[in-house]
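**Archive record**
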Amino acid sequence: MSRHTTLGRRTPRLTAIAGLAAAQLLWACIGSIGDHDGPDKNGPGPDGPETLAQSIGETTRVARLTHEQYDNTVRDLLEQPLTAPVYSTDFRTDASSGGYPFDNDTYVLSVDQGLHRSYELAAAQIALDFINDTALYDKWVPSAGSDEERVRGFVESFGERVHRRPLTPDQVDDYLALAPLGATTYEDTTGLQGSVRLILEALFTSPYFLYRTELSNEAAGTVGGLDGISKLTAYEIATRLSYTLWNTMPDDDLFAAAKSGALDDGDTLRAQVDRMLKDSRASALFAKVLSQAMGVYRYENIKPNATFYPDAPSDLSSLAIEELSLLMQDAYDNDRSYRELLTAPRTFVNQDTAPLYGLQGSYGPEFEEATLDASERRGLLTTIGFLASNSNSVNPDPIHRGLWVAQKLLCSSVAAPPGTIPPLPTPEPDQTNRQAIEALTQAPGTDCNVCHGSLINPLGFPFENFDAVGAIRDNDRGLELDLATVPLIENEEMPVDGALELIDGLAERQVVYDCYGQHLTSYLLGRPYRKEDQTLRNLIGKNAFEDSSLVDIIAEAVTSLQFTYRRLENP
């Protein structure tokens, strides 16, 4: 439900808050917002970055919080339980970036007039909830001194938490200037409490709260053989870490490490990262991130035809989503490697999905870990979710299965199909599903055959022994299956006969681990992958190929130069 109240006409109170926010935003964003040139469509260059400095990419220096980050941060600031209603209920839905799998794309997270008004309403409710929480109010508003001294103490202490860095003297003065208006502007809150209430509204509409700001731009000299770069300040590193690993603001320990300058020490930084990665917030976040990287949004479209699959669960879509989430959570919590995700004969099942895997035994409604027959299934590519989400309601869809492998595991650039593409054909009585797809897409000399003949179809046909709900089949409507293909991997033919041979072959290719590095790099930097990100991508790919755990890979990435520094901007 919404927490917003009808708190706000456009009054002198709102005019003063808006003026302060506008002044802060102007100062914060000069030379920052809109300076990027968008994602590099060409991907990584064959010879690496052109200069050393370009091995550290540009960042969005003023990155708006996602709605989830906003709610998490407000909850932490107000010390509310996870069950508390959120303040973003009436916020308009964030736009998504085509092809970018995560929800933190700083290129598209913008503020329009509607969202700005929603922020104002939410801030008014947050301020009211704050002053009505006696324990919270007493914690942050000093009990001794004059009203002016008490307001100043509140601004300097709580304001530091909201801004996620110490306020400058000018910022403190700007907030204090609102105190006289706040003392008289509310009918139900006067004096000191009114001053605090109005300042809270200003704090929670400040760009320093709504955005993650990285304003430092001082040359760091030569570091690790790199020059032309700037080190993030301790507070900027703390904030980048907390929103990357926890999706919320820094906690007391991280604030203390930033304040003392301890984060400048590599060992202390790594110790903080290790601590954060053991927190349940990191575990849950990366289970979500990994699921997004694997295209979990497609799982929502799983709708098997009840006539053809009468025994399939009616809620197969939600079951597949939960299974994927549990697999990712397990991989993170148990220090598994990316290779294990691709090849281990393990998943999670319940009474509804176990029969689809051919498992015998007694299962209940709750999911539990299950070991699969390694001669039949291994890893993510033989899970129900991958197979059923890349099928239509009746038949397997080898085109989308192959396209998924090409894009998600190999990071191949596949051209969009022509606008006149016909629908997938229904196989003739004497024709297998594979033969129907080949007739449609692999006619010699056609434009379709360029991509389908060597890249897409050969990565999808090995899965033809799995039907549209992910169960194993040994024939296609009585016709013999043909699972043999020759996909082209990095311009090299890799003959395979069936899904397991394809999975085993892919698991030995460095390009698969570099592609995982590309996905993770995109998430860590909060934008689509660009050429200068290749160094970080290669670091992650190397560690993944060497079977480092997913947790260790993340720890190495977020303590790297590519994460804690950024390229200098021209004046």
About this structure: The first helix runs from residue 12 to 29. The chain has 24 helices and ten strands. The first strand starts at residue 62 and ends at 64.
